[in-house]
Amino acid sequence: MARLPFDNDIKTLRFLSGEMTQGDLGDKVGVTRQTIAAIEQGKYSPSLEVAFRIARVFGKPLEEVFRWAGD
Fold it and tell me: In this protein, which residues make up the domain named HTH cro/C1-type (predicted)?
């Protein structure tokens, strides 16, 4: 499966937030650990709602968590 046309800083933000686990983040946004792992790896595109929830957990605007990397 090809990578999606955007990058994210979720792994870095988790580390900077007291080494938050994927499971912890998933619990905070209402998705599974596996979903967070797939989003981090660029294998799954979150819904807009989930993307905003992730950004809110870190106190960041959406564009500081996700970046367009397409053409």
Answer: 20-65
Place of tokens 């619990």: 27
Q: Domain range for residue 19?
A: 6-59
Query: How much is the pLDDT for 41?
Result: 93
Cα dist from 53 to 35, 50, 62, 70, whole Å: 13, 5, 9, 23
| 68 dihedral zone (left: phi>0; alpha: psi -120 to 50; beta) | beta
Residues linked to residue 8 through DSSP beta bridges, in sequence order: 66
pLDDT in tens, 10-29: 999 999 999 999 999 999 99
The rounded distance, in Å, linking the Cα atoms of 56 and 46 is 14
